[in-house]
Write a structure and sequence with these properties.
Blueprint lengths: L6 E9 L5 E10 L15 H8 L7 E6 L4 E5 L11 H6 L3 H18 L3 H17 L4 H11 L24 E5 L1
Antiparallel strand pairs: 1-2, 1-3, 4-5
Length: about 180
């Protein structure tokens, strides 16, 4: 019986221009539902590793690959947040499935007031995408991810958040969703 990893790193190395080596030859494989911590002193490459895993940093040697159907996101310690939105709205902003559901709901409201074949076709296409992604419960899944990442409450005002760990350690997070 073969083990299905949700994420695999093989021979991963990162060197910055000028020759500064951050890490070399990392080999890791993550099982489904595993909780993994990345610990190290400031400058050890924790954030760099997590950005590579999330696909934000593509300048490295070796292999960093999520299994088919697995999504990886990266939440930096001090993300750039829209002050006009709540914590939940900021977290959901880049979630494609959330955009589909919101658009579906907006079209549904329009159809109630002003039916058109074009709107119905657009809504049907969105419904098929949402069904295929099994994303009707996307708000609950976002909230579950936020809880796992220990984000502030979803309705919190982002202008009143305090950042980081009281000890001053870097706390970046990557989340893997199968």
């Amino acid at each position: 019986m073969s083990v299905q990893y949700v994420y695999h790193l093989d021979g991963l190395s990162k060197t910055y221009p000028g020759g500064k080596k951050i890490f070399e030859n990392i080999r890791l494989s993550f099982l489904p539902d595993a909780k993994i911590g990345v610990v190290g002193v400031n400058g050890a490459g924790k954030s760099t590793l997590l950005r590579i895993m999330a696909g934000e940093d593509k300048e490295y040697n070796g292999e960093a690959k999520a299994a088919d159907g697995v999504k990886v996101g990266y939440l930096p310690q001090e993300p750039k947040l829209d002050p006009t939105k709540t914590v939940f709205e900021n977290a959901a902003e880049l979630c494609e499935e959330k955009q589909w559901v919101d658009e579906f709901n907006a079209i549904s409201m329009k159809l109630g007031e002003d039916y058109s074949d074009e709107l119905m076709a657009e809504m049907t296409a969105l419904q098929e995408k949402i069904d295929a992604a099994d994303a009707w419960d996307i708000d609950a899944r976002i909230e579950m991810a936020m809880e796992a990442l220990r984000c502030p409450p979803g309705d919190a005002d982002v202008t009143k958040l305090s950042g980081g760990d009281p000890a001053g350690r870097d706390l970046p997070v990557a989340a893997v969703e199968a």
